[in-house]
Amino acid sequence: MLSLEGISNFIHEWLNGHLNATLALLAEFVIIGVAAIGLFAVLGLGLVWMERKVAALMQIRMGPNRIGPKGIFQTSADTVKLIMKEALTPENADKILFNMAPFVVIIVAMLILVPIAFARNFQIWDINIGVLYVTSVSSLSVIGILMAGWSSGNKYSLLGAMRSGAQIVSYELSAGLSVLSIIVLTGSLKISDIVASQEDGWWIFKGHIPAIIAFVIFIIAATAETNRAPFDLAEAESELTAGFHTEYGGMKFALFFLSEYINIFIVCAIGATLFLGGWMPFHIGHWAAFNHIMDYIPSSFWFFGKTIFLIFLIMWFRWTFPRLRVDQLLNLEWKYLFPISMFNLLLMTLVAIMGWHF
Amino acid sequence: MFLKDYFSDVYHATKSLLTGMKLTGYYFTHPKEIITEEYPDNRKTLVMAERFRGEVVMPHDANNEHTCTGCSSCEIACPNGSIKIISKFNITPEGKKKKAIDQHIYRLDMCTMCGLCVEACPTDAIKMANTFEHSVFDRNNLIKRLNKPGSKIREGVEE
After folding, report:
1. Going by C-beta distance under 8 Å and a sequence separation of 6 or more, which residues neighbour residue A244?
2. By CB distance 3.0 to 4.6 Å, which of A30, A41, A80, A120 could disulfide with A299?
3. Number of domains in chain B
4. Which has more pLDDT, B35 or A289?
């Protein structure tokens, strides 16, 4: 059967049959790099189109509908425009930091892709601290944002970057705690173990109410960490023009824009892995026949379906909820999400110890 | 009690957020609610609202007669001088001079579509039409003469 696992095994064997082991490994590095960049490009184009369509429908509009059927080539046309535009560097900017910042942001986004399991046995690197790796590397992206805001030499950019710093640092706590409450159940940080533990049902169903609370908190924290509305204080179109990327133009702006969508994809992929079983098909306990039927749908479809469902949920938030002020943002985190997720972790530990989960 | 308020806050916040999501979710799943007019495509079937103020026109009946007396009320009412009334004097059969409209000049390029001239008109001689495709290549074409050439005032309006 044609699957991502089969394709990767075929390439691996073919390379090892024709080259020596070192060269084959190097060739695989290159293939993975190209595939990751290709995935980024497709995700960027696809998610921007999806966002615009979702936004339009929720606001009773049409959305892009001129270029290609249902406007699907609109984002490609926009990208061509962005490539042709001049990437200006302001005279008084800190030039090295200014030009480095978009690459820092995009490289961080690329690094988080490493431990994500896209399909059955299809993963770049299955490290045993997968979840820890993701949470720690994702906090590096704030450095890119701070670099961009500081080096622009513009007070609005700096304000946006500082807000972003406060926001990401605060919301990482509750995101981390809700991730931990699933780790309590699985007992492993390895992504493949986490997916395998959901063979007889996803954690959101097996973990009772604590898992659902953890899921809700995770989605809220993920929205905040990706700097999206209703938590888009770092960009704040209305009061800071565009926050940390005010001074950027052309492809350098496009990299920031792309990294926003890549980050959404990644947090949703992590959420799908932890709570909705990653690539694991929808299984119910010991109903062997039902589970067998579900296995006929390829695992990559399950993974991307769940991820896109979560992305849709986050887009739904963006186009429904009003934006928060800075003080409301920090209130929500420190007075509500953080205490609730601490208590929830305690409850989850109790559930895990007593064996109340399925 | 603090804890009770805390949880009722969380409950009401969640509830109101879900109410909002329900509405946007309804719009998302019901594309028939879309209110966008795809204008150049639907030009044939486009229905403009009757109250839409697109330009000032002077209706004429089949005998090329209007009801404008040339009283200049519209000219006075116009806030930015878009209307200019040019009068003439007709000699009545009794030999008296009688004031009448010669040209009702309307500058569409200056008009703000406020509709005050229509409200000021004592004889309902002018009204707002709901046409809106006013682009022309020469802006002199936007200076219009509203009363048609050779038209005259309808009998009985001035009594």
Report:
1. A145, A146, A148, A149, A152, A157, A160, A161, A164, A234, A235, A256
2. A120
3. 2
4. B35
Per the structure, the complete domain to which residue A194 belongs is given by: 87-354
For residues B88 and B125, membership in a common domain is answered with: yes
Q: Which of B37, B101, B43, B109 is nearest to B74 (CA)?
A: B101
In a shared domain, residues B65 and B114: yes
| Residue bearing tokens 């950019």 | A157
- With respect to residue B91, please indicate whether it lies within any of the assigned structural domains: yes
Q: Show the low-confidence residues of chain A (pLDDT under 70).
A: 1-2, 234, 236-237, 357-358
Residue contact A60–B27, C-beta within 8 A: yes
Picking from A66, A84, A102, the residue at the C-terminal end of a domain is A84
| Angle, alpha carbons A226-A227-A231 (nearest 5°) | 125
Alpha carbon distance A355, A97 (integer Å): 51
> How would you class A105 by CB atoms within 10 Å of its CB: exposed for 0-12, middle for 13-18, buried for 19 or more?
buried
Residues A32, A113: one domain? Answer: no
Q: Give the type of residue at A138.
A: S
| Structural domain total, chain A | 2
| pLDDT given at position A258 | 85
Does any domain span residue B48? no
- Cα distances (angstroms) measured from residue A50 to each of A47, A265, B33: 5, 12, 19
Cα of A72 to nearest chain B Cα, Å: 18
Which domain CATH number covers B111?
A: 3.30.70.3270
> Do residue B28 and residue A316 have CB atoms under 8 angstroms apart?
yes
Q: Is B147 exposed, middle or buried (0-12, 13-18, 19+ CB in 10 A)?
A: buried
CA dist B124 and B142 (Å) reads 23
Closest partner residue to A61 (CB to CB) among B20, B25, B34 is: B34
Substitution target from A54, A58, A318 for chain B, most B beta carbons within 10 A: A58
The answer to whether the CB of A232 falls within 8 A of the CB of A325 is: no
- For residue A148, what pLDDT is reported? 85
> Does residue A230 have a cis peptide bond before it, meaning omega lies within 30 degrees of 0?
yes
Residues 6+ apart with CB under 8 A from A70: A53, A64
Question: Distance (Å, rounded) from C-alpha A77 to C-alpha A63?
Answer: 15
pLDDT at A113: 84
Say yes or no: A113 and A190 in one domain: yes
Q: Are residues B26 and B64 in the same domain?
A: no
Cβ-defined contact of B17 to A320 (cutoff 8 Å): yes
Nearest by CB: A58 against B10, B28, B38: B28
Closest CA to A36 of A145, A144, A115: A115
Of A43, A66, A84, the position where a domain reaches its end is: A84
Residue B27 to residue A320, Cβ atoms within 8 A: no
Give the nearest partner residue to B17 out of A57, A60, A321, using CB atoms: A321
Q: Do B35 and A60 touch (CB under 8 A)?
A: yes
In this prediction, the answer to ipTM > 0.85 reads no
